[in-house]
Specification:
Elements: E1 2-3, E2 20-33, E3 39-47, H1 61-64, E4 68-74, H2 90-99, H3 104-110, H4 114-121, E5 125-137, E6 140-146, E7 153-154
Antiparallel strand pairs: 1-4, 2-3, 2-5, 3-4, 5-6, 5-7
């Protein structure tokens, strides 16, 4: 389901991700299809940079923060024919919805299509497990990263809510020349 971006060669970006659990942000999701027409949703995850000091993530987030990880969620294949069914496995969709924190009421009210679900995912923070395995293609075996929706979970580290800006008094209030006391003669134009 996932692959590395070999076009990014800096900061060990061409190396595999170490297997393990990662805290990610979903940057974007869009629909795509293979040349044969097998449909998928492509997820662009970003390894969170704000969790480097979390000891449980020392071998994952701390080593790879700021990197992108791409994963595809494919439509299910028909069990009898092996052909693309054109529909997503309901378990995959439920896992995604649960990981981004959608309640059943929200799903019933707002998610009417694949596009609605993809849009709901963008910007969300989730926890995923990335594995390392081997894949043989055209006689060549190579290691690759992958993730499956059954390992996607709600984040254990919600991002800090934006701090309320403290009200700062105007330091010039009441002083001669304060903007409260400007007259036409004080303006040079």
């Amino acid at each position: 389901m996932g692959f590395i971006n070999l076009n990014e060669k800096t900061n060990n970006r061409s190396e595999l991700f170490p297997k393990g659990t990662y805290e990610m942000q979903i940057v974007s999701v869009h629909g795509d299809a293979s040349p044969s027409g097998h449909e998928n949703m492509q997820f662009d995850f970003l390894v969170r940079k704000d969790l480097d000091k979390v000891s449980a993530l020392a071998n994952t987030n701390a080593k790879t923060h700021g990197r992108h990880f791409f994963a595809n969620v494919w439509t299910a294949k028909d069990k009898e024919t092996g052909q693309d069914s054109g529909s997503y496995d309901p378990a995959d969709l439920a896992n995604i919805a649960d990981a981004i924190g959608l309640t059943q009421a929200q799903i019933d009210k707002y998610i009417k299509s694949k596009e609605d679900l993809m849009k709901a995912c963008e910007g969300k923070f989730i926890r995923i497990y990335i594995s390392v395995g081997e894949n043989t293609y055209k006689g060549e075996t190579r290691k690759q990263n992958s993730t499956f929706t059954n390992s996607w979970q709600k984040t254990k580290f919600p991002p800090q809510a934006a701090k309320k800006q403290e009200t700062v008094e105007d330091p010039f209030k009441g002083n001669a020349g304060s903007t409260d006391e400007l007259s036409e003669n004080d303006i040079p134009f």
